[in-house]
Fold these 2 entries.
Entry 1:
Amino acid sequence: MARQLRFVGTDSKVDGCPALHTDEGTGEVIVQGTPVTDPEGLAQLQHFGPGDAAVAVPRELLVNWGPKEMECVPELVDRATFRRLFETFKHTAWRLETRRGYASDREDPDFQAFLATGSSPCDFSEPWFVNIKAQTEAGKTVGRVRVADKPLTTEQLFLLDYARHNAAVGEDIRYLWREDATDLPAEDFWIFDSRLVALLHFDDADHITNIELITEPAEVVRYCIARDAAMHHAIARDEFEALVAEAG
């Protein structure tokens, strides 16, 4: 079976080598670096077998990016704690949305209204809108990039219509076609202040099963790298909406 490697990090400033990857299936750490080839050096390695390879990497690579514990124990939080993050963040809150639909949307009366009329209503007195409006008016940034399919699912069409309400309270909503998002993690998460990640776990019916907080610096950086890549390639909501309308 082919390995499923996830890039962990690099200390390189130019070409990405040396670097660390993790095998998602086995948990093994793959070290990428300069091969050790000189016979005298290889002769000094203990337990070096005929099928082995040796690479040289800076100590800093392992210190900065190496796993800090044998087994990661997820820190799970309840919904109330998760909601408080949107009240206490200092400057930025950003989300990547990758699923084709969400159970919470399908259960929303606004979704049923959209199915009936093609337009979603909105109550700006809802706590979400009240809080986000207060945060953005205070100079903070709230944004999302949504991965979209061709054609858009019904749930994605609903969210595209509903995004005008999010924009009205200051959210920056952008879109990225799934075919252009192959280098992004297939995960939904929020990043708060580039220091804390709330990873959302879902079941097969698109319900959130739990919320995991990640504060380990190397892991947070990995999600920030994904954010930067998504923002670079995504297009603004109104431009995306025009493309969808043009495609019919």
Entry 2:
Amino acid sequence: MDRLIDLLPELWAATAETLYMVTVSLVLGGFGGLVLGVALYATRAGSLFPNRAVFGTLNVIVNTVRPIPFVILLTALQPLARSVGIPGIGTNFGVFVISIASLFAISRIVEQNLLTVRPGVIEAARAAGASRSRILFRLIPRESLGPLILGYTFIVVALVDMTAMAGAVAAGGLGDFAIVYGFKQFNPWVTWAAVVVIIIIVQGVQFVGNALARRVLRR
């Protein structure tokens, strides 16, 4: 326990690193995943802009990258990260890999949530004279906003989990803290301190996400 008290500054620094990786990865991967997810939805058969070639290509890419276990992706992307000037360790490397992993996960979540919009709503908008672009970029996001918020909440929780696994390659954050000061030094107090902080972060994210989704769905 005394060792944990001595390590409190490192614990707060690791927490800040985790929040940094989650925030930046959410911005980068979240935007890229949103664009890719909308493209998947719009180009699938029977959608607003059906295109078999585009949908097939995007679908194969997503299905190829998304199932790769994150720990394996960490090591597989190290050469690519170094080729663009990012060290193979540290928080920036963690952001690089997490952003790529989350991009493909988010794209599928976005696509699935957009599919929850009832076809009747789209048909009514088409009958009223709305263009396909207007429906895609205004009507559908508004109708699917609640599920999208819940989907992104799930992704943020997953990102926290990814940052912890990134600690296995010295990417910083609470995972790195738990491995270096807890596991390697046989100190369960330190490990559980990291676990408690992660639980607090996840609970806070889930609470905010659920509250926002409820507010949107009540409108």
